[in-house]
Design goal:
The strands form six sheets. This protein has a three-stranded antiparallel sheet, with no helix packed on it. A three-stranded mixed sheet has the order 12-14-13. Strands 1-2 form a two-stranded antiparallel ribbon. Helix content is 45%, strand content 13%. The chain is built from twelve helices and 14 strands. It starts with a helix and ends with a helix. The protein has four domains: 98 residues, no CATH class; 38 residues, no CATH class; 49 residues, no CATH class; 271 residues, Rhopdopsin 7-helix transmembrane proteins, CATH 1.20.1070. With 508 residues, the protein is of the alpha+beta class.
Length: 508
């Protein structure tokens, strides 16, 4: 600083007719010494007397503080009370040239309007330091070009060309929300994906936005998009396969019905009331066909028909099986000359059983339709990207009453057939009915938990599968062996063979 003052005084072009002087106090890096020096500067005597000045010459025009801020701050607080200016307060609108003919400007605020080099300290090895000019600052340059930096040659952290991040955590992108880490600064956070049904369409959001009922987030969770309407259709593989199976099983049942019509006078068809076999086959055909009502877009009429038709047709089927079982018992007991059941052989009891048992199911379905009939409904409450187009069953109690009554009929038929399974083979169809009812009950007991654990088109598919599998169980267990005898072993389809087996069984 002393050298600079001498250079200024010796240059007539800088401060004409003005000579600079100086007075230096050594603070010794001590706040106390800096305070003492400030008070001495004000009073002009070694004794520290505030607000007392015995100096004959005027006060110094300015003070340059210590390099260390902890030392210069106490000086600033004291000297500021007396409005002492950091020298630049007096250097305004100054324009001069240095000894090396470098032009220096100071504006009205005392700011130096000169060009500065921006230097990057680079350390290629441990013992080598390089000062590389990477840009410049020129306050006199056009607006927007005052600072120019060549970022490609700047080295950060010794050898890194990437600018280091000055934050604790990276910014959260769209689709994520911020959660502050406990016990850490607010700039430290974690990015958590938005929950199902929510989006974040801006970065660094604290809370995600919930989509409307008819909308669902896209894969990136940054936009709400319309939900897809879903229902079981014939065009998709699942619906097409189920419909194909239902039609094939219906044709199979129709073929068996034709076989029984063609061979209606043979003993194996006439045994155990062939009219009941016809009725059972017709009801099974309707069972397979009613599953087609469940496929396709739900409409008012299909929603009303699908469960009611299914319940009534299946009740007729199970009632027919029960009637056939009772026919077996009556036919066997009537062989005893002293049995009172001889008067019931050939009567209309089996048809009365079918009519009575089916009528109860009809009454349940009529009450269901009158009080709370099913209707088509768009279910938007599902936590998924789809709107389920479904049949709302109304009051679920009627649906389970219909299933419960059907299960009751199947249980009664199973119990009667189980008790009659050891009757003579001549008339005995009970063991096949026992197994068919066991399959029937097992399917529908498994249906309930599977039905309740699914939704949408898969719930419909579960019910169709239960209809097809239980109907197939009745068809195979009761009629498959008879078809085998009729078509493959006609030698066993004789009255003598059946009577012989009956005699043999009775002798046992």
């Amino acid at each position: 600083m002393i050298f600079a003052i001498h250079e200024v005084n010796q240059n007539p072009r800088l401060l004409t007719n003005i000579t600079l002087g100086f007075q230096i106090y050594d603070t010794c890096y001590s706040e106390t010494r800096s305070t003492e020096a400030s008070l001495t500067l004000l009073s002009g005597i070694p004794d520290l007397i505030p607000n007392y000045n015995c100096k004959s010459q005027p006060l110094r025009p300015g003070v340059i503080g210590d390099l260390i801020s902890s030392i210069s701050i106490p000086m600033t607080r004291i000297l500021g009370l007396y409005r002492f200016p950091q020298v630049l307060h007096y250097v305004r609108n100054v324009h001069f040239y240095t000894g090396s003919d470098e032009e220096i400007y100071f504006d009205a605020n005392g700011d130096a309007l000169t060009t500065y080099d921006i230097v990057n300290v680079q350390i290629p090895t441990v013992d080598i330091f390089k000062f590389i000019k990477v840009g410049r600052v020129d306050p006199r340059a056009p607006k927007g070009k005052e600072i120019i930096i060549n970022m490609s040659i700047v080295l950060w952290n010794e050898k890194d060309n990437q600018i280091p991040q000055s934050v604790c955590s990276e910014s959260c992108s769209t689709g994520y929300r911020k959660t502050i880490r406990r016990g850490q600064p607010v700039c430290c956070f974690d990015c958590i994906p938005c929950s199902a049904g929510e989006i974040a369409n801006k970065t660094d959001v604290m809370d995600c936005l919930k989509c409307r009922e008819e909308q669902w987030p896209n894969e990136r969770h940054d936009e709400c998009i319309p939900k897809i309407v879903e229902f079981l259709t014939y065009k998709e593989p699942l619906g097409a396969v189920l419909a194909t199976i239902a039609i094939l099983l219906c044709f199979t049942t129709a073929s068996i019905f034709c076989i029984f019509i063609k061979y209606r006078d043979t003993p194996i068809v006439k045994a155990n009331n062939r009219e009941l076999s016809y009725l059972l086959l017709l009801s099974l055909m309707l069972c397979f066909l009613c599953s087609l009502i469940f496929i396709g877009q739900p409409m008012r009429m299909t929603c009303i028909l699908r469960q009611t038709v299914f319940g009534i047709v299946f009740s007729i089927s199970v009632s027919s099986v029960l009637a056939k079982t009772i026919t077996v018992v009556i036919a066997f007991k009537a062989t005893n000359p002293n049995s009172k059941l001889r008067n019931w052989v050939g009567s209309k009891i089996p048809y009365s059983i079918i009519l009575f048992c089916s009528l109860i199911q009809v009454v349940i379905c009529i009450i269901w339709l009158l009080i709370s009939s099913p209707f088509p409904n768009l279910n938007m409450q599902t936590p998924s990207s789809k709107v389920i187009f479904e049949c709302n069953e109304g009051q679920q109690i009627f649906f389970y009453c219909m299933l419960g009554y059907m299960g009751f009929l199947a249980t009664v038929a199973f119990a009667v057939a189980f008790l009659a399974r050891k009757l003579p083979d001549s008339f005995n169809e009970a063991k096949y009915i026992t197994f068919s009812m066991l399959v029937f009950v097992s399917v529908w007991l498994s249906f309930i938990p599977a039905y309740l654990s699914t939704q949408g088109k898969y719930m419909v598919a579960v019910e169709i599968f239960a209809i097809l599998s239980s109907s197939s169980g009745l068809l195979c267990c009761i009629f498959l062996f008879k078809c085998y005898i009729i078509l493959v072993r006609p030698d066993l389809n004789t009255k003598e063979h059946l009577i012989g087996k009956g005699t043999l069984s009775n002798n046992k």
